[in-house]
């Protein structure tokens, strides 16, 4: 069995056995926080295939763990800047981190002090901020967690008031950090879409109408077949997303729409029960909807592709 498949099985079992385990325990028990950290700095030294395997399982379980922002984006930003001394705290799970894109919020950097507010960013204790053409590290003076539609991915408002900021390097690493984040998110979207498909198929086999399973009706068969094609195509797009910016943009567009479609059709197949609070189908639709805005909507990714294709 290949390493990504072994890792996938370990993560799936862990999330099933300990769904409420805190991030520090997850990082300690599975080594998930240091997945992309080089071995010489205490990590596992893995690559995009392992990242995608973990991302799929986290998306499948709607895990709230900060893998995307801490173990992927923050680690890549620190690696690119050579700030290896900050990695051990992330690898051990003692600290979570989030990355603030350039132009986000009302931030300004003056004499090494960071001031301003970032209105929406995935939750994290240490902020790696792209501001004024630089990458700096700072601990927010205040963090406010929102109650959002999708509570499985906590979002925060970060406030800085003359906060000391450590300069890590210039901001040239942002495109790569963004694209790796898109690749990890695409893997999560594939995992969520796959679970939606599985739930729909399971229900279509069990639910009976007119004396037969609804899965035997042609309309349901076609719906599920279309979903299977979407999910498998999304998996292919997500698998290539880490290669470069073009593939990341493809995955950002396709995987987002595939997840939205799968989550919506899952509810349709379930019928009335699919919109009840007790059934998990609505949670996947909420995650799919929030994911569609995290790095910009599909149209934004296609605009990047158009610029590449049309020069």
Main CATH class of the largest domain: Mainly Alpha
Instruction: List the domain count as a whole number.
Output: 3
How many alpha or pi helices? 10
Order of helices and strands: HHHHHEEEEEEEEHEEHHHH
Largest sheet geometry: 4 strands, mixed
Low-confidence stretches: none
Instruction: Briefly note the structural class of the backbone.
Output: alpha+beta
Distance between the terminal alpha carbons, to the nearest Å? 43 Å
Beta-strand fraction estimate:
15-25%
Name of the CATH architecture of the largest domain: Up-down Bundle
Compact description:
By secondary structure, the protein is of the alpha+beta class. The chain has helices at 3-17, 23-30, 48-60, 67-81, 87-91, 174-206, 218-240, 245-270, 281-294, 298-310, and strands at residues 97-100, 108-110, 113-122, 126-131, 134-138, 142-145, 155-164, 166-170, 208-209, 212-213. The longest helix has 33 residues, at 174-206.
Please tell me about this protein's structure.
The protein is of the alpha+beta class and 311 residues long. The protein has three domains: 1-95, Acyl-CoA dehydrogenase/oxidase, N-terminal domain (Butyryl-Coa Dehydrogenase, subunit A, domain 1); 97-164, no CATH class; 174-310, Butyryl-CoA Dehydrogenase, subunit A, domain 3, CATH 1.20.140.10. The chain has ten helices and ten strands. It has helices at 3-17, 23-30, 48-60, 67-81, 87-91, 174-206, 218-240, 245-270, 281-294, 298-310, and strands at 97-100, 108-110, 113-122, 126-131, 134-138, 142-145, 155-164, 166-170, 208-209, 212-213. The strands form three sheets. A four-stranded mixed sheet has the order 1-4-5-8, covered by helices on one side. A hairpin with a 2-residue loop joins strand 9 (208-209) and strand 10. Helix 1 (3-17) packs parallel to helix 3, helix 3 crosses helix 6 (174-206) and helix 6 (174-206) runs parallel beside helix 8. The relative contact order is 0.11. It comes from Nonomuraea jabiensis.
């Amino acid at each position: 069995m290949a390493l990504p498949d072994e890792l996938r099985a370990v993560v799936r079992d862990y999330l099933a056995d300990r769904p409420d385990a805190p991030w520090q325990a997850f990082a300690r028990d599975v080594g998930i926080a240091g997945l992309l950290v080089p071995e010489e700095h205490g990590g596992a030294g893995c690559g995009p295939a392992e990242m995608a395997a973990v991302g799929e399982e986290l998306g499948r379980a709607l895990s709230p763990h900060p893998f995307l922002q801490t173990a992927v984006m923050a680690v890549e930003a620190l690696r690119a800047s050579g700030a290896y001394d900050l990695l051990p705290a992330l690898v051990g799970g003692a600290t979570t981190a989030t990355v603030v894109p350039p132009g986000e919020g009302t931030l300004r950097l003056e004499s090494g002090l960071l001031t301003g507010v970032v209105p929406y960013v995935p939750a994290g204790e240490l902020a790696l901020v792209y501001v004024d053409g630089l990458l700096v590290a700072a601990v927010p003076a205040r963090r406010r967690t929102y109650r959002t539609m999708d509570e499985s991915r906590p979002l925060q408002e970060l406030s800085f008031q003359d906060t000391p900021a450590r300069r890590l390097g210039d901001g040239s690493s942002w495109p790569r950090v963004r694209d790796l984040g898109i690749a990890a998110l695409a893997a999560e979207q594939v995992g969520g879409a796959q679970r939606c498909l599985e739930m729909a198929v399971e229900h279509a086999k069990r639910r009976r109408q007119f004396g037969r399973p609804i899965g035997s009706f042609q309309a349901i068969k076609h719906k599920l077949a279309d979903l299977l094609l979407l999910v498998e195509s999304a998996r292919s797009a997500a698998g290539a997303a880490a290669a470069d910016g073009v593939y990341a943009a493809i995955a950002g567009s396709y995987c987002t729409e595939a997840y939205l479609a799968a989550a919506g059709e899952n509810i349709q197949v379930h019928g009335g029960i699919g919109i009840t609070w007790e059934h998990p189908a609505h949670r996947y639709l909420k995650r799919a909807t929030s994911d569609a805005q995290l790095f910009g909507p599909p149209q934004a990714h296609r605009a990047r592709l158009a610029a590449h294709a049309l020069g």
